[in-house]
Amino acid sequence: MVCVTNYVKYTAEMTTDLGLLDALVQLSFAVQGALGRIAAEHELSLVQVRLLGILRDREPGMQELAKFLSLDKSSVTGLVDRAERRGLVQRESSSEDGRAVRVSMTEQGRALAQQFVKQMERELGALVEGLSEPDRRRLSVLASQVALDAARQALPGISLSPRKR
Amino acid sequence: MVCVTNYVKYTAEMTTDLGLLDALVQLSFAVQGALGRIAAEHELSLVQVRLLGILRDREPGMQELAKFLSLDKSSVTGLVDRAERRGLVQRESSSEDGRAVRVSMTEQGRALAQQFVKQMERELGALVEGLSEPDRRRLSVLASQVALDAARQALPGISLSPRKR
DNA sequence: TATTGTTATACTCTATAACTATA
DNA sequence: TATAGTTATAGAGTATAACAATA
Known about the structure:
By secondary structure, chain A is mainly alpha-helical. Chain A is 58% helix and 6% strand. Chain A has a two-stranded antiparallel ribbon with strand order 1-2. The longest helix of chain A is centred in the N-terminal third of the chain and has 22 residues. Chain A is elongated and about 60 Å long. The two termini of chain A are 37 Å apart. The N terminus and C terminus of chain A are likely disordered. The interface between A and B is large, with 74 and 74 residues. Chain A binds a DNA duplex through helix 4.
């Protein structure tokens, strides 16, 4: 049974296996919860966070941004409006195409993004505190494999520019 | 670097380790994406899905529901309003406390929840298709441990009624 | 007085459809 | 005509504050 309540019964002795499906769903809620909490601290939505993440190494147009975020372009208009109003991003009109704009991060946005990443590292660090170092490495490899498989299934045609890491 | 763009660069030979933090974030986006896609098919939000999940084996009051969902009680009023309008849940006034209501699932809601779970099992099954059976068991155990640790951190005082599994 | 729940209000986020301007 | 983007509109979802009814 896939548990979608985000609540888990636990006991003192800790060897419970939730089963793969529940485990992944619960884990995803835990991670998204951490993301959401930090985002809320900065009065950001998760989509705003993703926007900043995308703009770290790209200056996409609105349409392109819509594709990245799986949103309608009109939704992106509002999203960028609000982020721009807060001084996190900026629109620049394209020199090549009079219709197009390029969205980029401001210094302020970049600073916030960096701060966010640091907090996220702390929060997720706490989350995996209970695992031994070898277990962490195992989890990292397995989670990476599933995540990468998922990306391959979801984005069969999209080739992405290399990300700084 | 925690990647929050939900996009992953991948190559043909697949042994990449994203690092634990990115791996968990990416994995959580993949799982939540699956949840969100199925929810959207049924015109449900993720919160509506969680509501149905909670009501599988409880008939909580509005306040209690707010606590489960980490929402304000006024938000739950609207949430339950919309679900009730669609015939998925119902309010019943409590016999003991004249102020309170009890929210429960309708037959229609229960049927939808069952269907949802089946779809989720299929989708998540596809997600872990690339793992060997022993790797799946390992992932299950490790993910369970992190998820349960997270639940313990997040809900130190809350004791939950046993869930059917 | 405290608690349960709803209402009023305001904002974010989202999509659809219609629009403008450029290609 | 097609594409890039915005605007108008409508609805879900959220929180805060004020309210009603019951305990």
